Amino acid sequence: MRRETSFTTPRLPLMAPGLQPAAQHAEVFAPYDRSLIATVEQADRAGVDQALETAYGLFRNRDAWLSPARRIEILERTGAIMQGCRNQLALLAAREGGKPLIDSQVEVDRAIDGVKLCVEHLRTQAGREIPMNLNTASTGRVAFTQYEPIGVVVAFSAFNHPLNLIVHQVGPAVAAGCPVIVKPAEATPLSCMRFVEILREAGLPEEWCQALLTTDRDVAGTLMSDPRVGFFSFIGSARVGWMLRSKLAPGTRCALEHGGAAPVLIAADADLNEAVPRLAKGGFYHAGQVCVSVQRAFAHQSIARNLAQRLAERAKSLTVGDPTKADTEVGPLIRPAEVKRVDEWVKEAVNGGAQLLCGGETLSASCYSPTVLFDPPGGARVSTEEIFGPVVCVYPFDAIEEAIARANALPFAFQAAVFTRDLDTALRASERLDASAVMVNDHTAFRVDWMPFAGLRQSGLGVGGIPYTIRDMQIEKMTVIRSREL
User: Fold this and answer.
1) Angle of CA points 66, 69, 73, to nearest 5°
2) From the candidates 118, 291, 358, 393, which is the catalytic residue?
3) Residue 227's CB: how many other CB atoms inside 10 A?
């Protein structure tokens, strides 16, 4: 049941200069107990148009562009301010997003490091020389490239990493020199707004980064489909992402980050003492609400039952509850409707023949028990779609080729993993798995923020990771100089 806090709920304004808010506003609830955290003003079509006009006007006025030195100064101050309020940022992220505090603290540390990565990239990025004087046509010329901002960036973000995802979208835009308008997930806008506030505290003029929620999806559509947008960054579901891409104006570039149903291969020779805790972390971290969570574990027939039972024992030991408490290991799902959906999928799998080794029950309106299923039917939704909940499926296999074929059978391809002590097996799996990255003896959700992070097929478009996103938000402009002295 939804309950309101006993203190006055803060009302957050639109973070866009000069915008008048719409009549309605959004309410932000803590996913764990559905307490009202804040209300946030929203922008209507007129507000969106004004935000775009502000951003586009900045981009068209080259004299107003921020120099690399100024951007570095702002980003360095941003990181320092974030470090000074690390605990508050972690608590805010845990409260609004439901990720346990111990993991939200890691998220904040990653976000701070992401800001530093933006600075490092600016310090080391350089254009290149294009060879000339190679034939008659190129004689007497020198050519080189430099990087410029691509234009106005519009970013739509997801709820599951309410601070770090924003850093991955907004930080590179600031580093690249692009005016940016960010629309956080309606369920988790507070960390985004605090980050934008910190950028402004660090010296970023407010027009360069605007944050807002829109009154509805149609208004959001007008924001991202406007021809004044140079680059669109989207993190969310495949259904929404591909639909929005189809509405982009001609010339607008984009990057889409969706989800998957991450496969793991566990060979007969795998060290289960190493594998089980990593599979548990990769599967139940943030209650499985991660785009590369461990979901489908294909284990050799000789160890599959033992692996599944040990994983179930590990799952049973996890502390589920209030994400703001230090000892909580698994928090709530983002909405009660998601708890019901996950439970429906699990029951469908069990009714179809899967063995329920642990979990399979709702603990409250917001929390679902960490669940391990053994050998669910191939056609069940837990086997064919992204669960985005605390459920790991273990499937026995006889030959590695069979496991690889089953792992590759879905229209998603993101990160995958293999556990083995044999180098040839690891390399064979890495070469044959449909994935942009294959982890050896680690879970599928491993990531550091300077590495490429890319969904393939229906899982996304383009490459994430701080350096790659900065590059996406820039153009490489070539200058060719003709001179008699060359």
Assistant:
1) 95
2) 291
3) 12
- 201 is known as an active-site residue: no
CA dihedral angle for residue 269, residue 272, residue 274, residue 277, rounded to 10 degrees: 150
Annotated catalytic residue: which of 257, 329, 338, 386? 257
Sorted by sequence, the CB contacts under 8 Å of residue 87 that are 6+ apart come out as 105
Query: Is 263 in contact with 296 (CB distance < 8 Å)?
Result: yes
DSSP 187-253: TS-HHHHHHHHHHHHTT--GGGEEE-EESSHHHHHHHHS-TTEEEEEEES-HHHHHHHHTTPPTT-E
* Domain 263-448, CATH among 1.10.10.10, 3.40.50.300, 1.50.10.20, 3.40.309.10: 3.40.309.10
- What's the rounded Cα separation, in Å, for the pair 141 and 136? 10
Segment 408-444, tens digit of pLDDT: 999 999 999 999 999 999 999 999 999 999 999 999 9
Residue 112 tokens, joined: 């701070």
Between CA 110 and CA 104 the distance in angstroms is 10
Instruction: Say if domain 3-258+460-478 classifies as CATH 3.40.5.60.
Output: no
pLDDT (tens digit per residue) in 319-340: 999 999 999 999 999 999 999 9
Domain chopping of the chain, boundaries = 3-258+460-478, 263-448
Secondary structure (DSSP) of 380-444: SHHHHS---SSEEEEEEESSHHHHHHHHT-SSEESEEEEE-S-HHHHHHHHHHS-SSEEEESS-T
Contact (Cβ atoms closer than 8 angstroms) between residue 291 and residue 455? yes
How far is Cα 337 from Cα 347, in angstroms, rounded to an integer? Answer: 15
Look up the pTM and report it.
Answer: 0.93
96 as an active site residue: the answer is no
Instruction: Classify residue 357 by its DSSP letter.
Output: E
How does DSSP classify residue 95?
H
